[in-house]
Amino acid sequence: MTMVLQGDVKSLAGGPFHTVPMTTYGITATQGKFTSVSDDLAIGATVSVVVPAMNEAENLPHVFATLPRWVDEVILVDGNSTDDTVAVARALRPGLRVVNQTGKGKGNALIEGFAAASGDIIVMIDADGSTDGHEIIRFVSALVAGADFAKGSRFTSGAGSDDISFTRSLGNTVLTTLTNWLYGTRYTDLCYGYNAFWARHLDALALDCDGFEIETLMNVRAAKAGLAIQEVPSHERCRIHGTSNLHAVRDGWRVLKTILRERTRRITVPERRVTATVSEHVAA
Description:
- The chain has nine helices and 14 strands.
- The protein is globular and about 45 Å long.
- It has a single domain (33-266), classed as Alpha-Beta Complex (Spore Coat Polysaccharide Biosynthesis Protein SpsA, Chain A).
- By secondary structure, it is an alpha/beta fold.
- A seven-stranded mixed beta sheet has the order 7-6-5-8-11-9-12, with helices on both faces.
């Protein structure tokens, strides 16, 4: 039986919430293949998960254990690890694609992973165990319901964090408030690395940064491009093993410069093309 979703998706871009007509992108109507992602939902989109990692061999067994079976492709972007990150990942995930990072930084790793992804939907998660792969279905559901960009939030209803410090939380609040004021968005969380989007919108995002500011850049450019954005509640866990490469003051400064710089950057909004109706994407 084909299930047609009714209603509109609420967007966080463009000031006060506005409704975006439910359309789906990236799949041709002739594809005709659906993948069951839950007892109630099947989708016609393929899903790629991009995991940037550097020296995360101890954490990968926990991360990969949470990934849904229905994910079509997992891409590990290895940042020149000196431990057994790649070997462990290959042993855990037959068919894993490994991208050897040519640059440096989380932003560069994600950009290279996105370029290698073949799925209609791209999901980005962390390799330290802080993001839960079981939540991927929430992001995918938001996208097949009409969103262009699904951004995770630790501070919306039903979300939370076991890891964020007072300093990081305060900085995130200030930066989120500034972004909302400058760009007319209604974000509750700016600096979180759990996001998903239709691959067809990579050109609109035009990502070009190397560091942890990549999440902020994605959120700002998605809003400037007029994409339909939906926040997805997510619970951030603590890193399982090792120490984070994040430096609150240094990376916070980079985020602030990104927010201010994007105000003067001109962006060309690509024309949207509708290639299938919701009923052709979603079945149950």
